[in-house]
Amino acid sequence: MTEHFSLEEMVRSGVAIRRKIDNSPSPSDVERLRQLCVHVLEPVRRRFGVTRISSGYRSAALNDAVGGVATSQHLRGEAADIHISDMETGRRIYDYIRRNLDFDQLLFEHRMSNGCRWLHVSYTTRRPNRRQARPVEC
Q1: Whether the predicted model's global pTM rises above the 0.85 cut
Q2: Which residues pair with 20 in a beta bridge?
């Protein structure tokens, strides 16, 4: 897809593997994933080094299995969740994207049960990107 992001990592899902869910994107989904990589993920990778994607494209069955909303941009290949190793790094990546890149949504998210944190970022070509940003709530 791009120098540092493969299609395989953008569709990989432990839930899909465990539950034997087909998570194959359509050609148009692949192109939207590529645009997300070009415009957001590659610049983040160049600035911060290794960037681990915890969730990229999701088929409808996978989205249901993980409790995603029916309108999730993951379903169209327009969104990815970036794993955050620590809060300081997460804040730096969040600020970099917000200040320097075009994006549709940028959300600092977390799971209360285990403290896992990630940045949800999306990019669309269907309309102008909204640049909606929601910082971490601490």
Answers
A1: yes
A2: none
